[in-house]
Design goal:
eight-stranded mixed β-sheet, 15 helices, globular
Length: 397
């Protein structure tokens, strides 16, 4: 098998983002498993940077043991892009001309696409992540027969754009983080001739948790619910805070809510004195905190995977997710490791169930741990990647 290239709009060792993290972890573990992998990306610094500005020098460097080739971006019409993107963010489908503007005026690197086209014989596959960026659209266009996508699809306006439906129905393969993502894709795209697999994201399953160390270090003695992740409206944290405040009003107790992660969000007065926001803490402290919690609540409605849910299960704790998130709800159903809620009263019922049935909560945590170990151990994931790429290689042969 020849080289495998992962193509992503921006890349560095520590920049945040789910797709960036997934690329780092997958390439690192595939490299360790003996596969020849590299990363193709632009010179842009990160998502929140100016997509017309080259931050990194053009050329090749080694990041986390993996070769990274960077290509310059071209200037873009930000105003034209923003006008179309605003429509999409509001759920309004653009015209065909506006779709063309969207893909033309977002992050793009003609040098990258030229490289893919002229060097395609050196590679078994080009793996694109995530779906809505110019690096994916035009990268696929440069060599569709070797194009594999880790699309990270959500049920949002972008996936219904005709320009994407036409291009992405031509790829050789798609790798999904969860089954609901595959099911959504099959409803939107023509996937009959596409090699497909529900892969998920690998996990280091031997993580350790020390609940007492967390309680001693941070001085939290009361029972608590934990939320770990970015604190913003997009993650639906405001709903968790609102519901937690109402729960405390209706059910007086010493129960607390502990928040971990970046971002800022207003904590309602009803919950303020019962919420502890620790911000960023180191990884082991996070594992210790998760193990000390009654359960983890992941209220987001829009996830393609959830590392914090998997980590909670590896720490032996159950999870509570939102009923409107097909992916996290499916994980709970498949594993029997968690519950889900829609309105406040369902939230209250789930919280009470966990708090009043400690043995059941512990069993759900163990169910989740078994599920993660069987499905997302890196040894399992890397072999599934190898087999998948061998199928792509055979198709092209």
């Amino acid at each position: 098998m020849k080289k495998i290239a992962f193509v992503i709009p921006w890349y560095a060792e520590k920049i945040p983002g789910g797709a960036e993290m997934e690329t780092r972890e997958v390439t690192k573990h595939l490299k360790a498993a003996g596969m020849d992998v590299e990363i193709l990306t632009t010179c842009v610094r990160e998502f929140v940077s100016d997509w017309s500005e080259d931050y990194y020098p053009e050329g090749t460097e080694i990041v986390l043991g993996v070769p990274v080739r960077r290509f310059k971006v071209r200037k873009r019409d930000t105003k034209a892009f923003d006008e179309v993107n605003l429509k999409l963010m509001n759920g309004t489908m653009p015209s065909k001309d506006e779709e063309k503007t969207f893909i033309t005026e977002m992050i793009n690197s003609p040098d990258l696409y030229d490289y893919i086209s002229t060097h395609k014989d050196e590679y078994t596959a080009f793996v694109y992540i995530p779906y809505m960026f110019g690096t994916t659209y035009y990268g696929v266009k440069a060599c569709p027969e070797k194009a594999v996508m880790i699309p990270c699809f959500h049920n949002e306006a972008y996936i219904y754009m005709s320009i994407f439906r036409k291009m992405y129905s031509q790829v050789a393969g798609m790798i999904f983080n969860a089954r609901p993502e595959l099911e959504l894709t099959e409803k939107v795209y023509a996937t009959e001739n596409i090699e497909k697999i529900v892969m998920g994201i690998g996990m280091d399953i031997d993580l350790k948790t020390d609940p007492e160390a967390f309680r001693k270090k941070f001085g939290i003695k009361e029972p608590f619910i934990i939320y770990a992740g970015r604190k913003d409206v997009g993650k639906n944290v405001h709903t968790l805070l609102k519901y937690f405040g109402e729960y405390k009003k209706r059910n007086p107790s010493d129960l607390r809510l502990v928040l971990i992660g970046g971002g800022e969000i207003e904590i309602p007065a009803s919950a303020r004195k019962y919420v502890t926001d620790l911000g960023f803490i180191d990884r082991q402290d996070k594992y210790n905190a998760t193990g000390a919690a009654e359960f983890l609540c992941q209220p987001s409605k829009n996830e393609s995977f959830s590392l914090v849910i998997m980590e909670s299960w590896l720490c032996g704790r159950p999870v509570l997710v939102h009923e409107k998130c097909d992916v996290t709800k499916n994980f709970c159903r498949e594993s029997q490791g968690g519950l889900f809620f829609d309105d406040y009263f369902e939230f209250e019922g789930c919280v009470d169930h966990f708090l009043k049935n400690k043995d059941i909560a512990a069993q759900m945590g163990e169910n989740g741990k078994k599920y993660v170990t069987e499905h997302f151990d890196w040894n399992v994931i890397t072999e599934r990647y190898r087999t998948f790429f061998e199928k792509i290689d055979a198709r092209n042969a």
